[in-house]
Amino acid sequence: MRFCVPMTLLLTAALEAQPQLLTLAGRSPLISIRVVFLTGTASDPVGKEGVASLTAAMLAQGGSRHMSYQEILDALFPMAVSVNFQVDKEMTVFHANTHLDNLDEFYKIFRGMLLEPGWRQEDLNRLRDDAINFLRVSLRGNNDEELGKEVLYNLIYSGHPYGHHNAGVVSALQKLRLEDLQEFYRRNYTRSNLIIGLAGGYPADFAERVRKDFAQLPADPPPAVKLPEPPPIRGRHVTLIEKDTRAVACSIGFPIAVRRGHPDYPALLVAQSWFGQHRMSGGRLFQRMRELRGLNYGDYAYIEYFPRGMFQFEPDPNLARRQQIFQIWIRPVEPDTAHFALRLAMYELDRLIRLGLTREEFERTRQFLSKYVNLLTRTKTAELGYAIDSRFYGIPDYNTYIKQALARLTVDDVNRAIRKHLRTTDLHIVLVAKNCEALRSRLLADEPSPITYNAPKPAEILEEDKIVAAWKLNLKPENVRIIPVEKIFE
Amino acid sequence: MSNGLRLIIIPTDYPNVVALYIVVHAGSRNEVEPGKSGFAHLFEHMMFRGTRNFPPEKYEAVLKSAGASSNAYTTDDYTAYHTTFSKEDLETILALEADRFQNLEYSPDVFRTEALAVLGEYNKNSSDPANKLEEVLRDTAFDRHTYKHTTMGFLKDILDMPNQFDYSRLFFERYYRPEFTTMILAGDVDPAHARSLVEKHWGNWKRGSFRPEIPSEPPANGPRSNRINWSSPTLPWIVVSFRGPAYSDEEPDHAALDLIAYLGFSESSELYRKLVIREQRVDILEAENLRRVDPYLFNVWSRVKKEADVAAVQKEILATLEAFREKPVDEQRLERVKKHLRYRFALSLEDSEAVVATVARFVALRRTPETINRLFELYEKITPATIQAVARKYFTEQGRTIVTLTGGRSQ
Prior knowledge:
The complex is a heterodimer of chains A (about 500) and B (about 400). Chain A has about 500 residues and is α/β, with parallel strands linked by helices. Chain A folds into two domains: about 5-215, CATH 3.30.830.10; about 235-485, Cytochrome Bc1 Complex, Chain A, domain 1, CATH 3.30.830. Chain A has 18 helices and eleven strands. In chain A, the strands form two sheets. Chain A has a six-stranded mixed β-sheet, sandwiched between helices. Chain A has a five-stranded mixed β-sheet with strand order 1-5-2-4-3, sandwiched between helices. Chain B folds into two domains: about 5-200, Cytochrome Bc1 Complex, Chain A, domain 1 (2-Layer Sandwich), CATH 3.30.830; about 225-405, Cytochrome Bc1 Complex, Chain A, domain 1 (2-Layer Sandwich). Helix content of chain B is about 45%, strand content about 20%. Chain B has helices at about 40-45, 55-65, 90-105, 110-125, 130-140, 155-160, 165-175, 190-200, 255-265, 270-280, 310-325, 330-350, 350-365, 370-380, 385-395; strands spanning about 5-10, 15-25, 70-75, 80-85, 180-185, 225-230, 235-245, 280-290, 295-305, 400-405. In chain B, a hairpin with a 4-residue loop joins strand 3 and strand 4. In chain B, helix 9 (about 255-265) packs across helix 15 (about 385-395) and helix 11 (about 310-325) crosses helix 15 (about 385-395). Chain B is globular. At the A-B interface, helix 3, strand 4, helix 5, strand 9 and helix 13 of A face helix 2, strand 3, strand 4, helix 4 and helix 10 of B.
């Protein structure tokens, strides 16, 4: 597998050493601003995992040189503006929406936050607590689904710059000092790796003012992060996370060479949409697992990172990555049916690879996506975000890119891409469950796991169930391990 | 419209996209019979199970061809079905929706399967202690009113759902009627054309005759409290709650409590400054004054970093509320909160879907978007004296419920 690096953007920027500006001027009194640095948690030094996120948090949720955090909150409160941030492997974004009435006053504060951080120890203490509590409590304790997904990523990218959670690792977070954050800021927040997006009815000279302000950042681009290929996976690996929980959450995945701009991206997007469009009931997995069998609340598939999917219908922009994975998300199932549900997901993936899409399924999905893409960019801030991502990937604006590519696509292209990039072996499976020892024994024994229903089912389903229940996972004992939840992210 | 259906059309400048909300004025508040908690929500699921003309596969196929994003949610007071799509598909979507609202049909077998998906939804929520906290808070604070249970419902009722097919048909007959329904269309639409399409597809929908009787809650006789032991590690939670008023765009009480929520507990409040920023003993602090058809609760939620601090944080929250009773708030601070609310509202309207989603929440209460204007006019009239009077009326020992949750091994 080869990953081409989107260096065009970085090189152009470095030569000019100017922030790139992306504007969507309009008449709306709602002004959106997105400031994206092409840096992120893949740049966390070993032993300092969490520094990228904590640095961004200090900017967005800490004081500036001239204002304490409390003073910033007080000043922003009447405007009802909040500065949001998101840190991913290769992108860090700060974004806010403000009313035109308050643009000037807001921007002065915003500029101070990003360009003249306050670096106060008390802010670091609070934000470090937040980061650790996010990992230990919000994620590990209270959200089994997201926990499973994030552990899946950590396993797939083990020993790789993507191999830790964006929020960091607890033991590293505990040791981070202000100097580590300042160092990270100095090296990674430069005008060469910066894209600023503006949308709305801002005054004519505003864009130039922003560009000039951010041009004060250092010119030297941050050190390039070399991404090796993800470690090879041989066979099927199952990681059971032992936790006192009611149901069983499951994620399955493996790396793919496809990302936006790759010739097979549109084809794989169609396949993914047909198989498991996020939070929609028309996907194959959803239909077979939830609608027909009532196994859980929903079942979906992804070819791009999509965090917080339980809280939102559309992905956030500015999570662009050079490397992506294919992923199946099975929402929590009753413990008795966990083995069957896992087998059914694998059976369906196998079926997808064997049979592909029919012409009619392809046409319908293509039509869906060519319109649905409009919904992804219906807010100005999302449109800006997608435009910035398109620069990262070196593609035209996302809507045009998708619509043009879909128009040229054939069902054969899709089915060829499925066979080329998807597989049912050499992958990771993560289950968050109680009584993992017993589950491990059942998985290794590989005995049939029949399912019973509370209502009659069509003969076709009952026949299929027999095949699914006996579907061999062929797991090796050394590839099925149990991790107590307390050990995760530590 | 003559059959009792209400239609609200909001043309916006956002191009190409149309957002549709269909609000049914029945939610978990309408689950009056014992053992039927969670039913309005289950019913929302059933609405995706098809009709004779459009079985689920065909329904899905039409939505898919329209590139539509479609979903639904249920609350205490209403159930909302929303679809966002390209403007050229307006008639297709209106016809499709009209069909399922009038001709929904599903078998007992399909019903039993769908009931399991609801259990799946409960399961996916079950690892978050905040859900449990809300469940216990309502159960503790209310005796008779159906706000006693959450929209999800009690687990025992969810487990029994597969056996309630007949009740599900009754629920449909009662509430899925034009007089219980308000439709909102926003986006790139021509009002006259849209209205004619709605009349064409929805005009023959027949009125029903059911009048729900929601039990009223007896006067408060607290204080009450409850405690939850969470089996896995978590940070402790505390919720301090008072019986509050119903939503009103005429009487100042509910609107004044909105302002108190921000004055006392928002990011710019003194208590937030103390507990979150200065002392760093708490990582979540927020007040909630939900708009409900009947009197509900004013809640202050807090997640505390150390179990040993729970009692002290409780004391601080109570003292903050007590201060509203004792002396009038600063006029300037009150003006800042009013300004915040105005800009907050304006900033929330960032696309047609956001506009219609916001309007739907208000329409669910009064069946007209005019209530938004009236509420904001009401905010303007509220003075420090109103705030004090409202605080004295509601922040009483009798109306108080406190629930705490602590984990097996809190960190």
